[in-house]
Amino acid sequence: MNQNVQFFNAPALPPINDWEVFRYMGTKAVSEEMQALVLSCIDEARKCFGRRVCYREFDACVIQNTVALGFTNVISSSLAKNLEGCDRIILFAATLGLGIDRLIAKYSRLSPARALCLQALGTERIEALCHTFCCEMAKKYGRLKPRFSPGYGDLPLELQKDIFRALDCPNSIGLSLNQSLLMTPTKSVTAIVGIRR
Amino acid sequence: MKITEFLKQNILYLDGGMGTLLQGAGLGVGERPEEWNLSHPDVIQSIHRAYYEAGSHVVNTNTFGANLLHFSKEELEPIIAAAVNNAKSARDAASGDHPKFIALDIGPTGRLLKPYGDLDFEDAVSIFAQTVRLGVKYGVDLVMIETMNDSYETKAALLAAKENCDLPVFVSNAYGEDGKLMTGASPEAMVAMLEGMGADAIGVNCSLGPKQLRGVIDRILAVSSLPVLLKPNAGLPQSKDGRTFYDVLPADFAAEVADAIQNGVRIAGGCCGTTPEYIRALTQKAKDVNPLPLSQKNITVVSSYTHAVTFGKEPILIGERINPTGKKRFKQALIENDVDYILREGLEQQAKGVHILDVNVGLPDVDEVEMLRRVSGELQAISDLPLQIDTSDPVAMEAALRRYNGKAMINSVNGKEESMRSIFPLVKKYGGLTVALTLDENGIPDTADGRVAIAKKILAVAAEYGIDKKDLIFDTLAMTVSADANAARVTLDALSRIRTELGCHTSLGVSNVSFGLPQRDVINGTFFAMALVGGLSAAIMNPYSAEMQKTYHAFRVLNGNDENCADYIVFAPTVAALAAQAPASTSGETGKEGTALQEAIISGRTVSAEEVTEKLLLAVSPMEIVQNEIIPALDRVGKGFEEKTVYLPQLLMSAEAAKAAFGKIKAVLSNQKTEQEQRIAIVIATVKGDIHDIGKNIVRLLLENYGFAVTDLGKDVSTAEIVDTVVRLQAPLVGLSALMTTTVPAMEETIAALRKKAPWCKVMVGGAVLNREYAERIGADRYCKDAMEAVRYAESL
Q: In CATH, which of 1.20.1560.10, 3.20.20.330, 3.30.420.10, 1.20.1050.10 is domain B3-285?
């Protein structure tokens, strides 16, 4: 393990927001049956959510479209814009672990409706985990910029390789990157958060 | 002196952290530590030497990430050569007259294996194999597989080591605070698998400090017959004033680890944050501790990728339903490659409380090697139960065992010379608990004496292969009591003698006993009870049988296994339900039920769709139900979806309810032997390199609803497999899915190949990155933006 990597012991997350789940499922009309489906998915998935977060701080510097991130340099006008007025960043990776992926895999064979619901539930939970992390960091560092991930705007997905190296994600939190630059477990986020000067 | 010899009498000390010291010496962010073997040999040598001089018997080469995923073949050899030579130079230079060994260090690849990740098991084995071969070539004394946080990758690494060298292999895993590996395995599951495969020492490193790892270490010590290894971090990383440090100091670290040694740990060192100072403190602190002798635990156990199932404490139920014998619907599923049906059978048995699933997919006309490998692999992706691999074909057995994630149950070996010679080498290599049938070249003896004698013979031959009796479980063969009044008696006598005289565990296929009799359940239940009293450890049984369930639950209460009768109290109400299972009402108001079925499908109520269909089937022909109820309901939902008044979740829920109704209808049709009229055959797949299949599964579900014969090849499917299947089935339509831009070329390649080999076949494509223009450019006939459009297109052909 890289000894510069720090860990965030996430407190209990806010309760699951059903409406966010419905939104991620892509429905505007919610029937009784759908509500029952979401409830039973929540019940089944409850024990499957891990919450592991690792992070590091770096000095950062924006020169036009080039951003020096402390662990690498990247050309991205959208990240440059996001980090305006920042000279430090927090780089973090968060994951719910493989439990929810296992459930999704199980039901994508048996019940695509349930799989869709569990997908949505996982998305809601990883967002909640990231939100909780960023709120805690804001307590420590003051005002933060909105988190920014590879794939947002023109920030290349290729940056994932550097992020994974800087945070040693596989050994730190059991997060791995496949050849297509996608993460497993799938309910995971890596992001850069600017600390306002 | 060989390290295994030394270990018999002594505590073996390992080294401490390497990464920590390299970062201290100036290793940059993103720089690869293994390259320092070549660029900074002096630094590496001085670290190794410092550990030897601090009292380490073993140092790990600086090769944690030295594998073909991180380095090219040309880069790898010089790095490993230099790493081993650095350790040798340090050994030659170091003072101290204690024995000094060099371990080839092997860390995880950093990639997750399939089915969740994208690295194939066999590819992982070859990656590790290359590192092992190079380490052996340059002269290490042992292999140290460490910091593994996935049981499957651990198996790949151990298999690679075993297949490529004769050196001792130590295996160490990184456990989280929850006492499990990242991918879910418990310490007991890891011990079962690693002991079975022939590791020389097993244990724990990294992740946490010595105090936090104590729980895991104690659990390993309780079940391991092998030397146990502990290599913790110097506590947890803390941050102060932008500096990171570990919170356990050498003296406290030494005290904690020495205490673990007192409790049985035989191999100790440090991981992240530890330095030669920690190792010196440890060897000083523990120098007067006498090593505890190793003890044989004699635990009969199997495991999955999450947990171990131990025999002997209470009866173990093995679900027998994944087996085509006498099951028409199951045979049909095998022939049609309908793996989902088989998976569902597994999950339903799990819901009925079985502890292990028997897996038998042998059928003439079915490629058993491939089918067994596929079904056992897919079952392990969706169920955490251990599997009992059930086949008479040793080739199929090996294929399934090799890829099994854990320690499997093996069904079976018998007293025939040929059987033992083909099965025992597999058991030795891959580990496993083997069911041994008491029959041989002369058949099944009709006396208990005869069967016990065969059991003794099997034990003796197993011992020649180094297989202990704890890894054999004897089946004294339940014969049909209707053919021979003494049959059950002989089976039971042999069983209890093997249990008491030979001290072995036993298993029975219970259901055979009642063959040819009416109300077989009644006989089976009592036979099961008699066998349990006689010492039966496990039963291969039908978990849907009410009598078997009753016997099982009652026995656990009466035998003192069910504390406060808690499980029985949960079970009891279901008994009443089983008894009250009255035949469905036959009152003929089918008009109402017809509407009820449509409603159930439209609102997506799977269970009620099934129930209503069952009732309807009493009065209406299957095809009428399809035509007048199911199709109109589906059409309404499908139209709603196209008009955007119905959203995806409801479409799916309706499709599933319809599928459930079809399931009931299909069961009736396959009994009536009438050929259901099916629409055209369609082959669908997610293309090579892409592992996303939710969209494809939705398309499949809807196509099936509309009566198409869908062959689903799954995800990450090669061009050749798609083309071959289309040609074999003469399919007029194929559906291809891709989610990522990086896999669209694979789609294009598949279409080109189809045009050449199957020019009659239309190609529809879909997936997040595609649109109409893009689809045209890669040569598809049709882009379908969603599943309903795929149905409409298929209907138009």
A: 3.20.20.330
